[in-house]
From TrEMBL:
EC code(s) of this entry: 5.6.2.4
Catalytic activity: Couples ATP hydrolysis with the unwinding of duplex DNA by translocating in the 3'-5' direction
Enzyme class: isomerase
Domain of life: Bacteria
GO cellular component: bacterial nucleoid; cytoplasm; replisome
Protein name per its UniProtKB record: DNA helicase RecQ
Domain Helicase ATP-binding: 25-193
GO molecular function: 3'-5' DNA helicase activity; ATP binding; DNA binding; four-way junction helicase activity; hydrolase activity; metal ion binding
Annotated GO biological process: DNA recombination; DNA repair; DNA replication; SOS response
Cofactor dependency: Zn(2+); Mg(2+)
Residue ranges crossing the lipid bilayer per the database entry: none
Length: 519
């Protein structure tokens, strides 16, 4: 009998398992279910591929992206594994041939697009073949409030109902709690099925700089640190994708554009060049990236803000998959913030969804403004604690100038407490700066002891102070509720004068804080 390790060594040519591959494969080999939370590049594919190869029958893999399926199938075939895929790009005769070999039990793995499951007769056909396991890749696409929601994924629970005795897997690099809970619930898994590794990517260096002529900043960054290396540059709009790509080309950097407005042929051609040539810079919207498995991407640069920390983590996760040093570099402009906020508010989404997006966006801003280790802030958002500053991010390497913000923090916290821990930052700042808004008057917040105790700072400064406190874990945002700020243990330590608070004077986003403290 071949073991998972045999396959890993002989078929893949790897010496030993990484992450939780060993634990996951043995659970599934024994017929159990597994939900795998491992970071991008963590080696999730082998977790379902190896049991598919070893177990009787075919492994069915649900995957949202045609390009991703194709790459995986090509790689598997090259290793001698019998893999195929069925999606909208496989037509007529080709599809019939694949279904034939499926029915004759001649496949180890079949990648299937989620919409297939809704086609008449498909599930019935699966029911007639021997299935080794069912794996749902990029499982976060099932989360309705996540950033990659795909309606077709909601249908996938039918697999649990129709194939109760087949081992099932869900895999994703998503780390946030609400999305994880949604995956368990919608795809019928239990806490017991979870296999989760830490999310730190120690080889990635995180940097956030204020935007100041982003194209020139980018060019300097590339020429100084990543000359002729492969990278991805994210921009929000198609127009800016093209502008930045053209501009880099003029500066003799090999750059290609990628966005959903380009023809499928152009997109495919550019992606193929990115995958195969050395030193290509792909300037893209977020249409580019999911499932891109290029090990030597040395940097991911964001010239515009991403939508959330989850999105940022996933996008930057495409750097340094080979484990060698890589960079996640972002430039943040104050104008972009207002723009993105307006985009969220004026979008077509229902009100509660907009509110959620806004809270997630604010959490990202808090990350950008972190006075302390960016890695600690990033992992902290995902509920993971890094004991010491990492020593390998921009704030660790070039500490920003700080001031003693203990008294400011105490004022802010006591204001949160007096207003009963249910308001967002705007109202809180109105109280601190003593604005007599209708909301303040109707709640009688002008009668609180914290009303107008913060006149030494401007409104912008107070907003930055709150954000920095969130990013340092001194205040919690009620992400799943209404987004009010709440106290936590660390807040009480500050209120009880058991700890001091250092804040940065030159927050990336807000205007400089004139560190005058009035006691
Ligand atoms: P994920 O799907 O989690 O993003 P992949 O499955 O694509 O990650 O794996 C990332 C990279 O690591 C791939 O190039 C893969 O071949 C490689 N890899 C996977 N397992 C191992 C292992 N046990 N040892 C060394 N490299 C591995
Ligand atoms: Zn750090």
């Amino acid at each position: 009998m071949r073991t998972p390790l045999d396959v890993l060594q002989k078929t893949y040519g790897y010496e030993k398992f990484t992450g939780l591959q060993e634990e996951v494969t043995s659970r599934v080999m024994a017929g159990g279910n597994a939900v795998v939370f491992m970071p991008t590049g963590g080696g999730k594919s082998a977790c379902y591929q190896i049991p598919s190869i070893l177990r009787q029958g075919v492994g069915i893999v649900i995957s949202p992206l045609i390009a991703l399926m194709r790459d995986q199938v090509a790689a598997l075939k090259q290793m001698g594994v019998r893999a195929e895929c069925l999606n909208s790009s496989v037509k007529g005769q080709d599809a019939a041939l694949i279904i034939n070999s499926l029915q004759r039990s001649e496949l180890d793995l079949l990648y299937v697009a989620p919409e297939r499951l809704g086609q008449p007769g498909f599930i019935e056909m699966l029911a007639r073949v021997n299935i080794a396991l069912i794996a749902i890749d990029e499982a976060h696409c099932v989360a309705q409030w996540g950033h990659d929601f795909r309606p077709d994924y909601l249908r996938l629970n039918i697999l649990a109902e129709r194939f109760p005795n087949v081992p099932r897997m869900a895999l994703t690099a998503t780390a946030d709690g609400p999305t994880r809970r949604e995956i368990l619930q919608r795809l019928s898994f239990t806490e017991d099925d979870i296999f989760a590794t830490g999310f730190d990517r120690p080889n990635i260096r995180y940097t956030v700089v204020p935007k100041d002529g982003e194209n020139i900043q980018l060019l300097n960054f590339i020429q100084t640190y990543h000359f002729q290396e492969c990278g991805i540059v994210y921009r929000m709009s198609r127009k800016n994708v093209e502008k930045t790509a053209e501009w880099l080309c003029k500066k003799r950097i090999k750059a290609l554009p990628y966005h959903a407005g380009l023809s499928p042929e152009t997109r495919e051609k550019n992606q193929a060049r990115f995958m195969s040539e050395d030193g290509i810079v792909m300037v893209a919207t977020i249409a580019f990236g999911m499932g891109i498995d290029k090990p030597d991407v040395r940097y991911v640069a964001h010239l515009d803000l991403p939508k959330s920390i989850e999105a940022y983590y996933q996008e930057t996760g495409r750097a340094g998959r080979d484990g060698l040093p890589a960079e996640a570099w972002m430039s943040v402009g104050i104008n972009d913030i207002g723009f993105l906020r307006r985009m969220i508010l004026t979008g077509n989404a229902p009100e509660d969804r907009k509110a959620l997006e806004l809270r997630k966006f604010n959490a990202l801003l808090a990350y950008c403004e972190s006075a302390n280790c960016l890695r600690q802030a990033l992992l902290g958002y995902f509920g993971e604690e890094l004991k010491e500053p990492c020593g390998n991010c921009f704030t660790c390497l070039t500490p920003p100038s700080k001031f003693d913000g203990t008294i400011a923090a105490q004022k802010a916290l006591s204001n949160v407490y007096r207003t009963e821990q249910m308001y967002g930052v705007n109202h809180l700042v109105d109280v601190l700066t003593g604005k007599e808004t209708p909301k303040i008057l109707s709640q009688a917040h002008d009668k609180l002891s914290t009303f107008k105790i913060g006149t030494e700072y401007t409104r912008d400064e107070w907003i930055s102070i709150h954000r920095q406190m969130v990013s340092q874990g001194l205040l919690d945002v009620d992400i799943e509720g209404y987004g009010g700020l709440k106290l936590n243990n660390a807040s009480w330590e500050v209120l009880r004068k058991e700890r001091t608070v250092a804040l940065r004077k030159d927050p990336i986003i807000a205007k400089k804080i004139s560190a005058k403290t009035k006691d």
